[in-house]
Amino acid sequence: QVQLVESGGGLVQPGGSLRLSCAVSGSTFTINTMGWYRQAPGKQRELVAAFKFGGSTNYADSVKGRFTISGDNARNMVALQMNSLKPEDTAVYYCNARGGWPPLEYDRWGQGTQVTVSS
């Protein structure tokens, strides 16, 4: 079973930078998509960035040019570099991995890490 653990969240001033990391274990060779999502208080969870192995990378419009997602071919990590942070980036950030094949697809999540952008 694929498991994910996030780290790197914390308090940062507006305009600052933060790097989130996610360690992935289990049957990582079955993963085909990895990404980061976030959820602010009172709001729905939203996509921040995601990529498909052998395919494309997608970013939310609100983070384009500021955030960069990265991973490796071993599927054992996914990171999110966040620059020029804004107060509206404040949220709990979750890493995600999807894989498998119908009807045995899976969608796995980390426990979440808090990012707070405030002066």
Structural class: mainly beta
Beta-strand level of the residues, as a percent range? over 45%
Quaternary:
single chain
> How many DSSP H or I helices?
0
Poorly predicted regions are none
Biggest sheet, in brief?
Answer: 7 strands, mixed
- DSSP strand tally: 11
Distance between the termini: 41 Å
Question: Rg from C-alpha positions?
Answer: 14 Å
Q: Which geometry do the CA atoms define?
A: elongated
How would you explain this protein's 3D organization?
Strands 2, 4, 5, 6, 9, 10 and 11 form a seven-stranded mixed β-sheet that branches. The protein starts with a strand and ends with a strand. It has no helices and eleven strands. With 119 residues, the protein is mostly beta strands.
Spell out the key features of this protein.
single chain; 119 residues; mainly beta; seven-stranded mixed beta sheet; four-stranded antiparallel beta sheet
Topology:
Blueprint (H helix, E strand, L loop, with lengths): L2 E5 L2 E3 L5 E8 L5 E9 L6 E7 L4 E3 L7 E5 L5 E6 L8 E9 L6 E4 L3 E5 L2
Give a summary of the structure in a few sentences:
The chain is mainly β and 119 residues long. 0% of the residues lie in helices and 54% in strands. Strands 2, 4, 5, 6, 9, 10 and 11 form a 7-stranded mixed beta sheet that branches. A 4-stranded antiparallel beta sheet has the order 1-3-8-7, with no helix packed on it.
